[in-house]
Specification:
By secondary structure, the protein is an alpha/beta fold. A six-stranded antiparallel beta sheet has the order 20-21-22-29-24-27, with no helix packed on it. It has a five-stranded mixed β-barrel with strand order 6-9-7-8-12.
């Protein structure tokens, strides 16, 4: 049995301003109408002997991930919540403990949630080959045939071939991201592959090798797993135990040390979409080499990636640029420097600005809200509540609220009253009054909320009762 394990805890900071901490790239539709997570799950269909996927994600993204699975009608075998990121080795260790509990001989197919694979049929073939190799106790990784000296990827050098399997080799060594001259040497040699970050191995073998080389990571993972609790459909790892684990990748913790590492050569149209330049390379260019998304006008523009999310974007007489517009930020950079976007994110964090963290539209398990206007003592939001969903029963110490129904039907609890509001009707929530909003209709409920008071932060919410068990 093959247990897909999808890792979706990354931040995707190099794709800012589209990717943000609370809405990172794996949850965005970057190369199709489906999100990267959805594409990852959908391409699994058709692989023989496949079990329901195991999803490992951040606690902050749990409802976002669950909703995206529901949209494509995929049922998870488990949804494991990390209290904080500790890189891939601990995350996979916890998933391996789950797999072993379900099937001691279970094979794991470990996949990042945010990669692009164009040739799905070839991907299925290579998974079957890797699973056969893994069944013999090997730890397998996919080596991508590189066609250019890419400096943004790590590399794998192949060693001796395996006798029973074609295009399978012992791993000679892993190499960190090289500079361009070394990358050219690697590609020219024919012995090196791009490191895809995808793995296939028996869950029990991974745990054995982790015990041998990084017992501290395994001990923390075991403690976090054994003390885990159920929370709705989620498995919530014990926070203290999990945070005691060192932050380490699978490569460093196990694959670079084990004597049983194997690389399978493959050419599946792969990209990690790790930068805006990578997304430009993955797109469908026009006659001038431009990839455009949204409302775009160009004149004498060449080899650019231009994306507009909310308004018209025009470019004239430029080349080799990345231009990305969102509702609250614009990025302009040369394609050769798109890896440096992470520096912008770090600077925004240092300045305690919100643009690295959230978009104006913020998703919640019940729907979303979007900031429209604000000043010192007021704030205006657009709110959408999904059919059948409701916000927490709550109150505020520092603000009052006015609600206006734009479309749909709302049930409102306000103190001891229950109100039913429809289009163009409104109500007022006094400061300190307990209140709740629910969509009792069959269509999305759209509302305008006007907040007024001395403090308007999201932390001025006292939840008295919540269907989603949030604090």
């Amino acid at each position: 049995m093959i247990f897909p394990v999808v890792l979706s805890g990354g931040s995707g900071s190099r794709l800012w301003p589209l990717s943000r901490t609370l809405l990172p790239k794996q949850f965005l539709p970057l190369v199709s109408k489906k999100t990267m997570l959805q594409e990852t799950l959908l391409r699994l269909k058709g692989i023989a002997g496949l079990k329901d996927p195991v999803l490992v994600c951040s606690n902050d993204h749990r409802f976002l991930a669950a909703e995206q699975l529901r949209e494509i009608m995929v049922v998870a075998g488990a949804q494991i919540l990390e209290p904080a990121g500790r890189n891939t080795a601990p995350a996979v260790a916890v998933a391996a403990l789950h797999v072993v509990s379900a099937n001691p001989d279970g094979i794991m197919l470990v996949l990042p949630a945010d990669h692009l694979i164009r040739n799905v049929a070839e991907f299925h073939k290579i998974v079957a080959t890797a699973a056969a190799v893994a069944a013999e106790g090997r730890l397998v990784t996919f080596g991508i045939v590189g066609r250019e000296p890419e400096t943004g990827y790590g590399y794998i050098e192949r060693g001796k071939p395996l006798e029973k399997f074609s295009a399978c080799y012992r791993v000679a060594r892993f190499v960190e991201k090289p500079d361009e001259p070394r990358a050219r040497e690697f590609i020219a040699s024919g012995r090196f592959y791009w490191n895809s970050g995808m793995f296939v191995f028996k869950a029990s073998r991974y745990l054995e090798e982790l015990a041998k080389y990084r017992p501290d990571i395994l001990d923390a993972a075991k403690s976090a797993w054994e003390a885990a609790t159920r929370d709705l459909d989620f498995v919530r790892l014990d926070e203290k135990a999990f945070l005691a684990s060192p932050s380490e990748s699978i490569d460093y913790a196990v694959m670079e040390k084990t004597e049983d590492a194997v690389v399978v050569e493959t050419d599946i149209g792969w990209s990690d979409i790790g930068s805006w330049t990578a997304l430009w390379q993955a797109g469908q260019p026009d006659a001038s080499g431009n990839v455009t998304v949204g409302d775009i006008h160009t004149d004498d523009v060449h080899n650019c990636y231009v994306r507009a999310e909310h308004r018209l974007v025009t470019a004239v007489g430029v080349k080799d640029l990345i231009i990305v517009e969102t509702s609250d930020a614009v990025l302009v950079t040369h394609r050769d420097r798109s890896q440096e976007v992470k520096k912008v994110v770090d600077a925004l964090k240092a300045k305690q600005r919100d643009e690295y963290l959230v978009h104006k539209r913020v998703y919640r398990p019940w729907g979303y809200y979007e900031g429209l206007d604000s000043s010192d003592r007021f704030q205006v939001k657009r709110i959408m509540v999904k059919p059948g969903s409701k916000l927490s029963l709550q109150m505020h110490h520092h603000r009052a609220e006015h609600w206006v129904v734009v479309s749909g039907t709302a049930r409102v609890i306000r103190g001891d009253e229950t109100l039913l509001l429809s289009e163009n009707q409104s109500t007022y929530i006094p400061l300190g009054a307990k209140h709740r909003l629910e969509n009792v209709g069959k269509m999305p409920l759209h509302m305008i909320e006007v907040q007024s008071g001395s403090y308007l932060g999201e932390d001025d919410i006292v939840r008295l009762e919540d269907d989603y068990k949030r604090q």
